[in-house]
Design goal:
The protein has about 725 residues and is an alpha+beta fold. It is built from 14 helices and 39 strands. The N and C termini lie far apart (about 85 Å). The structure holds 1-deoxynojirimycin and calcium ion.
Length: about 725
């Protein structure tokens, strides 16, 4: 009887599982198909509006052989051990669960006040014959795309896993156009290259030249979020969500067949990370639309992250700030205090006895000037870099022990500045340059955060310039990613907001940890003073870097000729002044810097008004026009107010924008103040030419607005 039952069961199972598993998105736009090949290899494919966007693609992982031992203990059999390398074949499907989820949640800060998280889910449990190991694949199909991840339940036959490589494929349907940066384990600070997939190999060398010290992991290796466009106008975005305790995923292209495969960032010993069951991978995400605006509006990456783990979020505040920063970036002043290299450091050096070079930016008087400017213009915060000892010891030297994060230079009077800022209602923003010495930072972290709170700082800009110490770790390895996460969670304990530079690019973690108010993790405005950015850079970032979370882009540069600031710096800011205003709207972030000097803002005080006025937090965002590399136009409604702001940035070719104001409330009269490029503006030859005009608008109005090459426009709209 038992035997017959077993046979029946096997028969039934094979009937159910011989066929592919299909899942459709709530509205039916997407269809996911999962199947196992004859060899038991898991594969998936994705169709959008009945067209294939991802052809059958392999799933799975390869583990290292020497670490992975599996025990076989069949009844009555003796226990055997053998190394097992693969988690990509010999699988059978032993269980499947389907669910639907529909919930609307409200982010602490964001582009919209409500976010709908609506998907159909398929959870498959696979068992590997021979090893009897279990692996689950969880698919979530939304109306804007697909997320899936691997899950490794706790089990007798798999406790530790050392990953040799993840084997997730994205098989594309043709030689699409890609907007890409080179595969690099340590930086994303590149301009984007737009090319066919087949051209990546030929263009790789040229693409890495600006960061010549870096070597891509492969001639066809690129980073995510990767933006793609098919010849029939379908936009595809590949990235990841909820990158926690795992290595960052890059993509390696088989450029004969147009198949991308995951390529994880190695750790110091060359493997790709290790896990202990129960464990899971981050989500692999594919956002797809035939309308570029829908890629920008997608909330899938956030939705695939867990809800906030911070209960009381009242201390997390969108912040507009100025800072002692651009003067060092342009080379006008210095982070360091002296040119004499102190022989002993960290508190033991008597800085009062060394000769100052006189170019130190973070002096009490200079900081007070910024505090005054912030207070006069309604800014929330002031960032000061180069306030603490260690810079002269660090430059050019990878060392474990450079900064202690608590010892100011002698000309930076911490207490005087604290009291002054307090009296003016301005918050100080701390700077922690870690010099890549992550262990050193961890050692000091509690002391440093406590020191911040004691001195009135509730936000930190951290930085990871240079090689990661311990030696051999990369900026994006599992080990280092765990460090960023540790710093973020520890900061939350102290009610500190974090803006990490040079850290791994975000993957929507700010839903879970909303104190992560921004990251850099891409080529920011600083490069405008290091030789310049491509004019179209800011039209691509929203499609790539911003998919994972906000960027501390530090816009607002009004003086484009850097030589006027520092005669030795011949850089030119490749943007018009109106473009710089628009960035406060197009580059969504709850943290926004006005990066230029007070004296430059005073020269263009009418244009500066837009930076004073623009909101940081939004009830609604409407993407009006978008094409990667060409233009982005977005309208946003300020949180809790009827005020709207619009921003447009355009690339090398300029643009003529057509706006329809139908997003405004019917029956209401508004005044729109339009800050636009003057007719003869051009980012190279005439960047500071702008016009400001006021027009009356209603929800029936339309507007045609010309945008200069590398230009833009910004509009603020108030009810009359
Ligand atoms: C690089 C950061 O991006 C920049 O903003 C900072 O000023 C320097 N590192 C120094 O920490
Ligand atoms: Ca940087």
């Amino acid at each position: 009887m038992k035997k017959i039952g077993l046979i029946l069961n096997v028969l039934l199972l094979s009937m159910v599982y011989a066929y592919a598993q299909e899942l459709t998105s709530p509205s039916g736009t997407f269809r996911l198909t999962f199947s196992l090949t004859e060899k038991g290899e898991p594969t998936y494919r994705l169709d959008y509006k009945n067209k294939s966007v991802i052809k059958p693609s392999a799933l799975g992982l390869e583990l290292t052989g020497n670490m992975q031992k599996v025990e076989f203990a069949g009844e009555g059999e003796s226990t055997k051990e053998r190394p097992v390398h693969s988690l990509y074949d010999n699988f059978t499907l032993i269980d499947q669960k389907r669910t639907t989820f529909d919930e609307t949640w409200h982010p602490v800060w964001g582009e919209t006040k409500d976010i709908r998280n609506y998907y159909n889910e398929l959870l498959l449990t696979l068992q590997q014959s021979g090893s009897e190991r279990l692996m689950r694949i969880r698919f979530r199909l939304f109306d804007d795309g697909l997320g899936f991840r691997y899950e490794f339940p706790e089990q007798k036959n798999m406790t530790y896993m050392v990953i040799q490589e993840e084997k997730t494929q994205f098989a594309l349907t043709g030689d699409h156009t890609a907007y890409w940066i080179p595969g690099d384990y340590d930086t994303q600070e590149y301009d984007y290259t737009k090319s066919r997939l087949s051209e990546i190999r030929g263009l790789m060398q040229q693409a890495i030249t600006p960061n010549a010290s870096q070597t891509p992991f492969s001639p066809t290796g690129v980073q995510t979020a990767l933006m793609l466009k098919t010849d029939d106008g379908i936009y595809i975005n590949i990235h990841e969500a909820a990158l926690i305790n795992y290595a960052c995923m890059h993509l390696n292209l088989d450029d004969k067949n147009f198949v991308f495969e995951s390529w994880l960032t190695p750790d110091a010993n060359g493997t790709k990370g290790s896990l202990q069951t129960p464990a899971q991978s981050p989500w692999r995400t594919i956002i797809v639309s035939d309308d570029a605006r829908a890629i920008l509006a997608s909330k899938m990456t956030l939705n695939l992250n867990e809800p906030s783990k911070i209960e009381d979020t009242s201390w997390i505040k969108p912040t507009k700030y100025v800072g002692v920063w651009w003067e060092m970036i342009t080379g006008k002043s210095e982070w360091s205090y002296t040119y004499d290299l102190p022989s002993v450091h960290l508190g033991e050096t008597d800085y009062t006895r060394v000769k100052p070079h006189g170019k130190h930016g973070a002096t009490t008087a200079n900081v007070k000037r910024y505090i005054d400017f912030a207070a006069d213009n309604g800014f929330d915060g002031v960032l000061v870099e180069g306030w603490n000892i260690g810079w002269e010891d660090w430059f050019g030297n990878a060392k474990d022990h450079v900064f202690d994060f608590v010892t100011p230079y002698p000309d930076f009077d911490l207490k005087e500045i604290r009291d002054y800022a307090r009296s003016k209602g301005v918050n100080m923003i701390m700077h922690h340059e870690t010099s890549g010495a992550t262990r050193n930072y961890e050692r000091y972290m509690d002391t440093a955060y406590r020191f911040m709170k004691a001195n009135g700082y509730d936000a930190v800009k951290s930085g990871y310039v240079g090689n990661i110490i311990p030696i051999g770790e990369h900026h994006y390895s599992q080990w280092t990613n765990n460090h960023y996460q540790y710093a973020l969670e520890k900061a939350a304990e102290y009610k500190i907001m974090v803006n990490a530079h040079e850290a791994v690019r975000p993957t929507g973690l700010s839903r879970t940890w909303p104190n992560l108010i921004a990251n850099e993790s891409a080529r920011g405005t600083e490069y405008q003073a290091f030789g310049g950015n491509k004019a179209n850079h800011v039209t691509i970032l929203p499609f790539t870097r911003l998919i994972g979370g906000p960027m501390d882009f530090t816009p607002g540069i009004f003086e484009m000729d850097i030589q006027k600031i520092n005669p030795n710096n011949r850089s030119h800011v490749n943007a018009t002044l109106a473009n710089q205003l628009a960035l406060y709207v197009t580059m969504y972030s709850p943290l926004q810097m006005a990066a230029d000097f007070p004296e430059h803002y005073k020269r263009f005080i009418d244009a500066f008004q837009f930076i004073r006025d623009v909101a940081l937090d939004w009830d609604e965002s409407v993407y009006l026009e978008a094409e990667p590399g060409e233009y982005v136009t977005v309208a946003r409604k300020a949180k809790g107010s009827g005020q709207w702001f619009i921003g447009n940035v355009s690339g090398e070719n300029g643009y003529t924008s057509h706006i329809d104001f139908s997003f405004l409330e019917p029956g209401k009269q508004y005044t729109a103040t339009i800050y636009a490029d003057a007719p003869d503006a051009h980012y190279k030859t005439n960047p500071q030419a702008y016009t400001i005009r006021k027009v009356r608008v209603t929800n029936k109005s339309t507007l045609k607005q010309k945008v200069a090459p590398g230009g833009g426009y910004a509009i603020s709209i108030v009810e009359r």
